[in-house]
Amino acid sequence: MAKIWVEAYGCSASYSDSEMISGLIVNGGHTLAENSEDSDLNVIVTCSVKDATADKMIRKIMDSSSKPLVVAGCLPKAEKTKVEKFAENASLMGPNSIGKTLQVIQSTLDGKKTIALEDSDLSKVGLPKIRLNPAVGIVEIASGCMSECTFCQTKISKGDLQSYRVGDIVRQVKTELADGCCEVWLTSTDNGCYGFDINSDLPELVNTVSQIPEKFFMRVGMMNPMYMPRIREGLLKSFESSKVFKFLHVPVQSGSDKVLNDMKRGHTAKTFRDVAQQFREKFGKFTISTDIIVGFPTETEEDFQMTMQLLEETRPDIGNLSRYSPRPGTDAAEMPQIDMVEMKRRSKLAYELICKISKENNEKWIGWKGEAVFDEEFENQKRGRNFAYKPIFVNEEPKIGDVRTVEITDATVHSLIAVSYTHLTLPTKA
User: Is domain 369-425 classified as CATH 3.40.50.1970?
Assistant: First the structure.
């Protein structure tokens, strides 16, 4: 049997895919290598959202092509020719063809390049996995999406929405908890439209998962603002559960309705304003995360200023900023592009504002006292999260899975600093 190295890049769905690929590898009798140098074969689970990300993937692929290689994830599905240009002998596997992992690996080890990019009917729920973080269970709830965004390759990679059944997801969450996870992430390309194809919706799923008796915390992943009016009232109710982190990731992308229309986002800036306002009014301390794209081909200076105004008005706790980059196969890639110097100027201004708002929001937490669950290793430190999913570092090193009472003493742009008072073990029952 072979030693196989698996690494992942990109969103939580990519990391979830890598966990399942690793689980299938081990179930198939192979072992996981500790690094790429000691392996017989390397598997890279890729992301293709941005040019910079794709370029990083290509460099990694080139560095790994001296031995048998499988390139998995979104990039080979969206840009097959590009991957083959830099690693002509690599086998390729799409994000919805994970069920063929062992077949692809064995043929690659035998010296035969294999292409497995077609979508399968196999649900990812229930596949074996080797967890990257023992405290966090990443549970994919759907594949694909219902959007037609002109800047995005995801639809090319993952196709139309295919929601997994509520009962199957609940069983998977129970498995994660039985394996020792204290935190569960519900993830997909777009959680906002979950269930629309199977006569369900996200609030129903969150409510059902919340009823699992074990003590745990739940992070509800990214959702397109387009679908928020349809599910908002139900979601406000489902978020009342103490198990649900008071956190929303709602990517607005632009403050200009004209640009949003050109992006085919299906929502307005007001949609985002309403979401931020209503969740904060109901829950008080509530973390709002959003994504911003600057330099979209049709964005004027006036449009950009609308985005800056939206940031000032809504004051998101987290702003994930991207310079627009044309992705092959998308409509926006065919539009006249904005000058790079101008794009960098806008990016700098937006970044400075986002950092200012984030730090000011975090400083409002100074003096707060409450519980935090420590769930992740981060730059050789342990990071905790409170009820609003705020990242917290303490003055001593806790264990993964510890729950501690902390008091916030300082804040940075990206995190809270605290002292720890008590050390608890997360109970198994609520």
Answer: no
| Residue that has been written with the tokens 């590009």 in this structure | 82
Domain locations along the chain: 3-116, 136-363, 369-425
Residue whose structure tokens are 């709602």 = 250
Instruction: Determine the pLDDT at residue 327.
Output: 86
Which CATH number applies to 136-363?
Answer: 3.80.30.20
Same fold, 136-363 and 369-425: no
Residue 428 has pLDDT above 50, yes or no: no
Overall residue count recorded for the chain in this entry = 430
Q: What is the CATH number of domain 3-116?
A: 3.40.50.12160
- What pTM value is reported for the model? 0.88
CB pairs under 8 A, 24+ apart, for 76-84? 76/46, 76/117, 77/117, 77/156, 77/157, 77/158, 78/48, 78/153, 78/156, 78/157, 78/327, 78/328, 78/329, 79/48, 79/54, 79/153, 79/328, 79/329, 80/117, 82/54, 82/58, 82/328, 83/58
